[in-house]
Automatic annotation (TrEMBL):
SUPFAM superfamilies: FMN-binding split barrel (SSF50475). Pfam families: Flavin_Reduct (PF01613). The lineage of its organism: Bacteria, Pseudomonadati, Pseudomonadota, Alphaproteobacteria, Rhodobacterales. Gene3D superfamilies: Electron Transport, Fmn-binding Protein, Chain A. GO terms for molecular function: FMN binding; oxidoreductase activity, acting on the CH-NH group of donors, NAD or NADP as acceptor. It comes from the Bacteria. This is Flavin reductase like domain protein. Residues 20-172 form the Flavin reductase like domain. It comes from Jannaschia donghaensis.
Length: 200
């Protein structure tokens, strides 16, 4: 089949998210005048090594946040955010933190997630995450569409849980990172193989 997005796909559900998958989940924590916030974003990735940088995109809005979401409103206020890696064991808490709560309600408390303060920024982080990336906002880019915004941040601090380090390697097999597929579907890393690049 072929379709032009502006004409519609004619399917029961939009296939776009399923086509662009799997996607890592950025479990974004922020702090603002209304308190702390935690929410998962599946339009997320690393974008540069030196200095280390990440991005995530917000694509919907809440009626109590003036055309955006809590995470976006708070990082605009503070200029910082933290990306927490989601392991399989935290799947239910991650999902609970996606609830459409009122601005000011703390998803950490609602989802039963312990939090700690970051080291380099004034922001909470998920206490037991396999890894957390403390970030300072470098760019906020408005994208075409009603509420589409991309946020870029420079990583200023990295937390790695001790049991996720094995022989000096961040071992994703030790905790099974989750990824987003399309529709209501997720997956976790369960198989690993290596490929040497040509010339290596």
């Amino acid at each position: 089949m072929f379709y032009r997005p502006e004409d519609g796909h004619g399917l029961p559900h939009n296939p776009f998210n399923a086509i662009v998958s799997p996607r890592p989940i950025g479990w974004i924590s922020t702090r603002g005048g209304l308190g702390d916030n935690l929410a998962p974003y599946s339009f997320f990735n690393a974008v540069a090594y030196v200095p280390p940088q990440v991005m995530f995109a917000s694509t919907t809005a809440k009626p109590d946040r003036d055309g955006t979401k809590d995470s976006m409103a708070q990082l605009r206020e503070s200029g910082v955010f933290c990306v927490n890696v989601v392991e399989y064991a935290m799947r239910d808490a991650m999902n609970a933190s996606s609830a459409p709560l009122a601005a000011g309600e703390d998803e950490f408390a609602v989802a039963g997630v312990e939090k700690l303060d970051c080291e380099t920024i004034d922001c909470p982080r998920v206490a037991n995450a396999p890894a957390s990336l403390e970030c300072r906002v470098t760019q906020i880019v408005t994208l075409p569409g009603d509420a589409n915004v991309a946020v870029f941040g420079e990583v200023t601090g990295v937390h790695i849980r001790d049991d996720a380090l094995r022989d000096g390697i961040f071992d994703v097999m030790s905790f099974g990172p989750m990824a987003r597929l399309g529709y209501k579907d997720y997956t976790r890393v369960e198989n690993l193989f290596s490929l040497a690049r040509p010339g290596e």
